[in-house]
Write the structure tokens for this entry.
Amino acid sequence: RGAAPALTDVVGGTLHFMITTLPSVTGLIAGGQVRALAVTGETPIAVLPGVPPVAATMPGYKATAWYGILVRTGTPAPILARLAEAKRAAMADATLINRLREEGAEPSAMDGPGFGRLIREERLRWAEVVRRANITVD
């Protein structure tokens, strides 16, 4: 059904818990309508002091969201250079970095090849989770 209806069900007590993105629940946490039990990254995060990572009780657990800039193969080098410079400038902007951290994100200045490796590793990791859990599409 989606995150919004699920959050409504958590607040209303018809759903016991859910896993969602931090920005979607910060207001509900601050308002006392929901309580954060754990974070899904490998380490605690500053905006939820005292909330442990799931990995504290389930070693190896990690489920994080990430964002990146993707371009098609063969994008001209001058365009890649301009994008890289814009990314470097953004990652040097303290206001942006603080805003991202307030949302529970940890900014990273990963280069293109590094980001490609991350995507490949995530695909392999989640494919293994799906295989081991025998997850199928209904």
Notes: DSSP finds five helices and no strands in the chain. Residues 5 and 11 are 10 Å apart (CA to CA). The mean pLDDT is 92.
